[in-house]
Amino acid sequence: MTATTHRTHRSALNPLHAVLLAGTIPLFLGALLSDYAYASTYHIQWSLFASWLIAGGLVFAGLALLCAIIDLFRANRRRGLYLAYFVLLLVIWIAGFINALVHAKDAWGMMPTGFILSIVVTVLACAATWIGFSSLSAGGKE
């Protein structure tokens, strides 16, 4: 008599993908806090900080998007979940790029649109990180 065992393993994110995905939150959150500081104090340096942090967030989000494209082609059973994750990362990158263009204006002219876009991008980055770390790495048979 032979016994068969079914092994389940976690299909966790690639460590590089995880670092890139997790790096988007502090960068976009820093931009949001810098926008809030500019709205409170009107010191132009805060708008410059926000611009640089958004640029860094776009680099990390773009590289995480590239990893998501690779994972999308490698996914076999949960393609719908990977597609939703990819679309969310794409929306984050597009909204972040629009936010960068808004922040390229004069510091006074970027308010309040830049602040609102920073809120939206930060919330979307948190949602993408939540989905990336919880749903995509859930255990199950592959």
UniProtKB/TrEMBL annotation:
One family name in Pfam for this protein: DUF2231
Keyword Transmembrane: yes
Keyword annotations from UniProtKB, A to Z: Membrane, Transmembrane, Transmembrane helix
Every DUF2231 domain range: 15-132
InterPro entries in the record: DUF2231_TM (IPR019251), UCP029509 (IPR016923)
Transmembrane segments: 12-34, 46-70, 82-102, 114-133
Keyword Transmembrane helix on entry: yes
Name recorded for this polypeptide: DUF2231 domain-containing protein
Protein's organism: Marinobacter nanhaiticus D15-8W
